[in-house]
Amino acid sequence: KYEGPVYSDGIALVDADGNRIEEGRLKPGEQLTVFPEARPGIEDAPTILVRFEEDVYGGDVKGEYTVGGYAAFSKVCTHAGCMVADRDGDVLVCPCHSGRFDPTTGASVVGGPPPRGLPQLPITVSSDGYLVATGDFDAPVGAGGG
Ligand code: FES
Question: What pTM was estimated for this model as a whole?
Fold first, then answer.
């Protein structure tokens, strides 16, 4: 049973040092690995938080899941479970087999062997100004499950 902090308007996202993510933390074009802090079952689920200008999003991105130009996706590659750790321009790249995901279109697959895009995590800004998740990833995390 989860015993950590609970936030009334969402699930805290924290960085690798455990610090919450203020709304102004990233500039457009930046990204950060974060972790949903307070959710039984997916705590420590590595998540890529990206920020772009709000008008770049299109395609399959779930607009209601984004806030202030931020979007969050599972960092676990849907091909064989490596961590999606690299970047080529705006595209997120998996180092294992060069799987490529476009975060401006819902992390859809734009190259390589992954069978499906990266699951998206719904996020918003809490009343006290931090990014929080409002629910679970929209698809199973990791390889398979697609
Ligand atoms: Fe990511 Fe194969 S594990 S491309």
Answer: 0.89
